[in-house]
Amino acid sequence: MTTIAQPGSGSDEGSRQMRVERRVENIMTTVSREYILTALVLFGLFLIFVAQLVRIGATAAGAGASAHNAYLVLAAIGSYLMVGVLFVGGVMKRNENQFVRFGLLIAAGLLFIGAAMIL
């Protein structure tokens, strides 16, 4: 029968697991800083803007399915990037007010539903 190693037991597996958990926590804390979240949301909006330009240009030029596929790929990447960023912000921003965190999660859910309808 195997036992689960406790963090302070000195076991190699337990200490490795704690190091991995600390690294993941450090990465998520870094990613959840306001300026990084803002930059990623703006990048997602930029991708959606470029996708709309591709769609308009393809319609004006009479391009076929490849331009429509490029529009779908750009819009999907931008939309789901913003969904992921809003979700990470809602979960990881523990120093924010509960209503702000709830608003970020609601915005992520609404954007997810909207992206599914657009695409």
Description:
With 119 residues, the chain is mainly alpha-helical. It contains four helices and no strands. The radius of gyration is 20 Å and the shape is elongated. The mean pLDDT is 81.
Low-confidence stretches: none
Quaternary organization = single chain
Helices and strands, in order, run as: HHHH
Span of the ends, CA to CA: 51 Å
Q: What's the rounded overall pLDDT mean?
A: 81
Query: What share of residues are in beta strands?
Result: under 5%
Percentage of residues in helical conformation: over 70%
Strands, count = 0
Count of helices? 4
For the sheet with most strands, the description reads: none
List the helices and strands and how they pair.
Elements: H1 12-31, H2 34-61, H3 65-92, H4 98-118
Essential attributes:
119 residues; mainly alpha
Outline of the structure:
The chain has helices at 12-31, 34-61, 65-92, 98-118. By secondary structure, the chain is an all-alpha fold. The protein starts with 11 loop residues before the first helix and ends with a helix.
